[in-house]
Amino acid sequence: MKRFKKRSAKTNITHYGVLVRRHFKQIFSNGKLFFSLLLQAPVMLIICLFVYDKDTFVDPVNLFNASTITFVFVFVGALMGVLNSYSAVCKERDILSREVFGGLDVTGYVLAKFTVLASVGLVQCLIIAAGALVFIDFPFVSPVGGALALFLSIYLVHLSLPATGLLISAVLKNAGSAILPVLVVIVMQVVFSDCVIPIDGAARVLCYVTSTMWGVALLGRACDLNSYYQFGVYNEIYSYEPILCVCVLAAIAVLCLLLAVVKLKIDYRSKD
Description:
Layout: H1 9-29, H2 31-51, H3 63-85, H4 93-101, H5 106-135, H6 143-171, H7 179-191, H8 211-222, H9 242-267
Helix pairs in contact: 1-5, 2-3, 2-5, 3-5, 3-6, 3-7, 3-8, 5-6, 5-9, 6-8, 6-9, 8-9
């Protein structure tokens, strides 16, 4: 990395561009990594289709199966996101230390990592969403709006988890120590999704900071799952406004990225 004596907005943008190209080059030059990322989405799609019951959306709609399949598609997006990112920073600590000493801005570093992860995730989520539309007859209120909601529910959840993974990676010093926090995050995405396990009381607060709940809410609203409940029973999350779900997922991603940047700035403040 070229050493810059004076930092400016132009310099930081230059750092960002160099790092994005470098991270993409690392992916394409590493055959094992490239093919693992390439196969990730098709494998996840096949797993989702194994879970799917073809009679789920046939009248009368099986609400348990409907909630399960919407959750599964959202969850695989989350799973890919956190697994692709949790070691992204900590495995490069030695390199990062040298480059920060040479003038690298950690904001550009984190944003470059996130940009590459988001780009890879975009392709992966498009594959999963396209496969879902081909093989599953979702009862969308609007075909176009429903297809968009399906993609956004998977991709926005996916984006929030790489941001979370980068925060974990920034906080910890090595990939081995990140396993426990990653497992906690994954378990939270299941338990506090509010569609697999009913959550009541004070613990329900954790649902509102869990990405999968907002993704499931977005997709469930697009399928109007509450209309299939009877006798006044419904699931609150399926009544949330789509724009609210989108904004909360974006906010989670932004907050985690900001915290990751702050943590790295604190770590390298003596070299800044």
